[in-house]
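Minutes, project check-in

Agenda point 3 was the complex the collaborators sent over. CS summarized: two entities, 405 residues total, and the question is how they sit relative to each other. Sequences were read into the notes so everyone works from the same version.
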Amino acid sequence: MSSDVMQSSFGASGTVEISDLATYSPAPPRAPAPGPQKENGNFNFIDLALPRKIVIRQGAICLAYLFKPIPQAAWFKYFDGITSTAEREGKQVIQHIDASSAGVALFDEVFEAAGVTSIPLAHKLAVANVLTSAYAPPRDDVQEALPPEAVRLHCIWSAGDGDAMRRYKNLVHFFETPTAEQLRRYRRDDSRAQIISGSRKGMTIFRGAQRTLAALYDELITGVAGYAVNGVALEGREEIAQHMDAYHKVAAAAQLFAPADIELEEDEEEE
Amino acid sequence: MAIDVTRDMDGLRKALSEMLERGFAQSRMSRSLDDSDEGGRERMFGSLPPLTLSPGYYKRAEYLLWLEKCKDGGLLDQMGGLTMAEADGLLAVAEARNEFERNHPPCGVCGARQETPFATSCCKCNTEFVRRVA
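CS then shared the predicted structure for the full assembly.
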């Protein structure tokens, strides 16, 4: 993604916008928007066509980084850059996941603003954390039950009014039940690994199944709630597959294949 | 040089053997676990047969054992064709299972698998075994 202009302006709130959006024009509005509801002054859905604005507070001023929608190919590069390793030390298995290098590379890939020579590493890491903030909430945080093949995500997406970053809750992805073949594809690709420095003492590098998860998402998704494109609720498999952020695809599909929580009752401790 | 786990059949066979042995030890242990205190449980878990290979082998081995179950359940036809690595992996499962079954033959009376092939009586029903000499 390239750009040739950096917009920089001090807003009324003291926010400096650093943007590569000069060359970006969102798709023209489609059918009239159904009138998104506002909640606490913010729209209660994510508009996937709009630029993402990620605000970092630095002393008295805020810096706002603006991003075009991140293409799937850039996300795949990010996933490829994550190193997930495991090695045996005696009876212990030491696991290590490093996504920060991949996060910095993602920032460099998708954010190119001419004239900006040095963006602090801490900002890149913070922005990457926001871009990759989608997660499935713990069961205790969820009030209402969903159909069996539905997945709920929370995430931080973009700054709302007043440049405050906002957590979006209860974004829902509805899926078809995976077939045996789809489950097998996921399990097969999730079990791929390479070993370096010998089979016994060597380190396992897991290759990850994110590309497979994204493909399975496109095959299985039937509907979403909490997402829109140009103010229109996102619906239909093809539309969703085309517009959905690939990180959200992977986060949601991973939950679809994860084992469900079980209710565990602990024995009371003996006095 | 990096080893591709999906193609290292010797490593996978060893990982599968270790997992089968460990599963056997765990199933024998499960009866006494309920009656043990925390320290006893730790000692028991510590005495399980070790896993000696890099962790990636066991994740792949788990997948192959699952694939074997699907095959036994007649589900493979619905799952598309096998890749070469999966076919080789299923052969590795079969070899590891044969070895396990040789090392832990079942009692002819109650079916319980024995600790060794040289047991003189069943560990569960105490049936005396008669050794046939060829």
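Noted in discussion: Chain B has two domains: 5-103, 105-134.
Follow-up: revisit at the next meeting once the mutant set is ready.
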